[in-house]
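Quick one:
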Amino acid sequence: MKVAECREKVVEELKKLVFNEEACTLLLQIENLAELYPADLDLEANQKGFQKKDGLHITVLGFKNGQVVKDALENVGDKETALEEMINMAEGMDWTFELKTEKYYISKPGRESIIQMVDLPGVANFYDHLNRLLGTDFEIPPAHITLYTKGDDEKSYMGIGINSWAEFEKL
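Output:
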């Protein structure tokens, strides 16, 4: 369900690319962008008990896909070389993104989020290379920024992992 829309804007200032080697997760951390929080949405979210998400980012590899990467790395000839190649590949990608107009409310038991969709062309290239490198068959996940979260416990405030369009459709 659409919650709100905002004007499209090209965003080029990424804070940094963060790879967690232990979890094999990859995030694009971004600055807090005022245009992500239009006053009407901010007021509505606050009235419904949502909190602004700390540490805005676009998840490229989340925990679920990261586990698949970890498992795949165990089956390659030289794990360290493959891991280094994956990191170098990520660092060499163009991670420029554009905000789309769509914002969505998503939920699963005990967790709720409001997300901003983004156009991130580099993610398709990244997953194409990753699938060839590791012999995996990842789908390209829906690129988004979690703006607000609400839930039953501390883990709820991390947001809701979305690893494929099929998962997104179920939320």
